[in-house]
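Bench log. Compound arrived from synthesis this morning; before running ITC I wanted a structural hypothesis for how iron/sulfur cluster sits in the protein. Inputs:
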Amino acid sequence: MKLEDKLFLDRFKPDEHAHISIVSQDVCARCPDKPCTIVCPAEVYHWDGEKTVVSYENCIECGACRLICPYNNIACTMPRGGFGVQYKYG
Ligand code: SF4
Ligand code: SF4
């Protein structure tokens, strides 16, 4: 089963308050490899040529982005209670 198919099984209840934000877009602009756009399994991060766009609604709360950002440039909290991803299995 492809990752996209597995993610389709998860349920999301997005909060209107973003639980992920970029601390400084200037830092992103100088980040050579932009690993957040590669490592996130839910493709939350996208470089649009000028800034990092964050589609926080798709986050599955794995925590990888905070570890991979070489500049500690991602502010991330857990979604409020009742919001975020719900796993069908496990
Ligand atoms: S890895 Fe960090 S600094 Fe680099 S583009 Fe992503 S959020 Fe910005
Ligand atoms: S916590 Fe995981 S799924 Fe959410 S944005 Fe970070 S890498 Fe992507």
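What the model suggests: The pocket of iron/sulfur cluster (ligand 2) is lined by residues 20, 40-42, 44, 59-65 (CB under 6 Å). DSSP finds four helices and six strands in the chain.
ITC booked for Thursday regardless.
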